[in-house]
Design brief:
Blueprint (H helix, E strand, L loop, with lengths): L12 H6 L4 E5 L5 H10 L6 E5 L5 E2 L5 E2 L6 E8 L11 H17 L7 E4 L3 E6 L2 E15 L2 E11 L24 H21 L5 H7 L9 E5 L5 E9 L5 E5 L2 E5 L6 E4 L2
Helix pairs in contact: 3-4, 3-5
């Protein structure tokens, strides 16, 4: 089998070091960038850190699902944020905001797939067309506390150059599989710019969701579909996904009325057959 990693260029550390807004730090390998950034915060690290791993060996997705990336084939990065002035009850909007930032960064860097890049509630970025929905990226939010301080770790995993046999499931994709070649450093810089600008605007508004929500709703392909929501304990909820409320919860219209479910309340959200 050819050495694919050898054909994939590393991130440009010098270009990242010159970037404003984030302190980018690139490591060759990490079990989990989210866990590493959380540990840095507990050791006194300050918000503004963006830790990027060229190869992630034991990453975690939502509900502790594992996520591994081949060397230099993806963007695996975790951002340390201090949303000063934002009530904790508004923090669930952060992964949704980050999803919008990923969509806009991909659209800037890969305009050929711009029309098909969308979101699935709560934390997936998709490439979608008549062939269906294929997962391009995922977002994970973790709240970290230490010494009376609290911070948010926003982890992003974006598939860039993986071949089909390097992806964990058949419903995943990469930019390369969508026919697009993207230089990872420029994509990461675009992502950092989008995330910083959107977090700053959201925090300046005290975490009020109206601005984020107006950006998120048109991108969310979950809305308007019949869905089957798997709940903890083997329970299920079926109905039409009709909205995302001001707390970032999915609103599902069922035969018994509307139900509002948060990301922490669900195991899976799938389109009902």
């Amino acid at each position: 089998m050819p050495d694919r990693a050898a054909s994939r260029p590393p991130l440009d550390r010098e270009a990242l070091a010159r970037a404003s807004g984030w302190r980018f730090e690139v490591v060759a390998e990490s079990p989990s960038t989210n866990a590493d950034v959380a540990a840095r915060f507990r050791e006194g690290g300050q918000p503004g850190l963006a830790l990027v791993a060229e190869h992630q060996t034991a990453g975690r997705g939502r509900l502790d699902r594992t996520w591994v990336t081949p060397a230099r084939a993806a963007l695996t990065v975790s951002f340390l944020l201090d949303p000063t002035g934002v009530p904790v009850g508004r923090w669930p909007w952060l992964p949704l905001l980050a999803g919008v930032a990923v969509v806009e960064a991909v659209r800037r860097s890969a305009p050929d797939v711009a029309a098909g890049v969308a979101l699935k509630w709560p934390n997936d970025v998709l490439c979608a067309d008549r062939r269906g929905d294929r997962k391009l990226a995922g977002v994970l939010l973790e709240r970290v506390e230490a010494g009376g301080r609290a911070a948010a770790v926003v982890g992003l995993g974006l598939n860039v150059s993986q071949a089909a046999d390097e992806l964990p499931v058949g419903t995943a994709t990469s930019l390369a599989l969508e026919g697009v070649t993207v230089e990872r450093t420029s994509l990461l810089l675009a992502l950092g710019d989008e995330l910083a600008a959107r977090v700053a605007a959201w925090a300046a508004a005290g975490g009020e969701p109206d601005g984020v929500r107006s950006s998120y709703l048109p991108l969310c392909r979950t809305l308007g579909r019949q869905v089957r929501v798997q709940l903890p304990g083997q329970g299920t909820l079926e109905g039409e996904a009709v909205d995302v409320d001001r707390d970032g919860r999915l609103v599902v219209r069922t035969a018994e009325g509307e139900r509002h479910v948060g990301a922490g309340d669900v195991v899976h959200v799938r389109q009902a057959m």
